Amino acid sequence: MPLHLSESEIVDRAALLPAFPSVVNDILQTLDDDNATLGALIHLVERDPVITARVLSIANAAAMAGRTQRDVRDMQVAVSLIGLSKVRETVLGVSLANFSSESRMGRHFWEHSVAVGVAAQELARLGRISTDYALVCGLLHDIGQLWMARCYPLEFQMVRLSLSLEPTLDILEAERKHFGIDHCAIGRLLATAWRLPTSVVAAIQHHHDAHPPADKLVAATHVGEVLANALDLSRQDEARVVNLSESACDLLGIDWNDDLNYLFGKIEARARYLARIFS
Q: NCBIfam families, alphabetically (predicted)?
């Protein structure tokens, strides 16, 4: 018999998870604020010593690669070396990596999340939309599974067992069988409760849809999930190539007749690199 979970119970039980990092919303708000300054971003970085250390480490690596003989300790110098985009990417990734780690999810869960985030980013470039939003959508697309594993570990393991015994079983069907709801719907509730932008909520909710809404961010997350599984970037035994939405590909301008090996190689290389950097 499946569980009978109300929406309020799902949101209330999110208290069992670590506190969602507020810096994620802060970063996304700076993207939508035309008056946001470099100083505001630096302030966000310097609030967290772990993130500060990671940004300075990347900046020092860049300085060494550029044969600059200096020990970078100033955040403004660090930003000038690696750029605003890389700083935002690092802040978002490290914050959500810590969140995932504190939630006690396995390494494969985070590696898959990073892979989808990177794939969504590269697809966002094709679709000419925000790569920062795309990264967040990819990193959080399976947040509903994290909730399942933390709040109902026995039922979550039963879903995993069902998928291993029935390779053709759809993951959403397996989840509904045991939970009465799937991780996409749970993810929507959590993202809404955390006051994430509506576009991010939609991407989390619809990333498995065969016919997702005509939204480029949703499309990038959906296709990113398919590519991450097809390329087996997290090397999971249960990685599955879900149905690929033709309309999502068209929306992003993807033509599978083109030579996309460069795109696939870039996604794979960046996913491996960022999984190390963020962790």
A: HDIG
4 pLDDT higher than 70: yes
Banded pLDDT at 241 (limits 50, 70, 90): low
**Dihedrals phi, psi of 240, to nearest 5 degrees:** -130, 140
pLDDT in tens, 253-268: 999 889 999 999 999 9
- Which structural domain, as residue segments, surrounds residue 73? 19-102
Quick check: 87 and 55 in contact, CB under 8 A? Answer: yes
Q: Give the integer Cα–Cα distance in Å for 171 and 169.
A: 6
- Of the candidates 54, 127, 113, the residue with the CA atom closest to the CA atom of residue 62: 54
Outline where the chain has alpha helix (H).
7-13, 22-32, 38-46, 49-65, 75-82, 84-102, 107-127, 131-140, 143-151, 153-165, 171-179, 183-193, 198-206, 216-230, 246-252, 261-278
Identify whether residues 171 and 184 lie together within a single domain.
yes
pLDDT digits (tens, 9 = 90+) for 35-61: 667 788 888 888 888 888 888 888 888
Is residue 80 domain-shared with residue 111, that is, in the same domain?
no
CB atoms within 10 A of CB 65: 9
Instruction: Give CA 255 to chain center in angstroms.
Output: 24
- pTM more than 0.85: yes
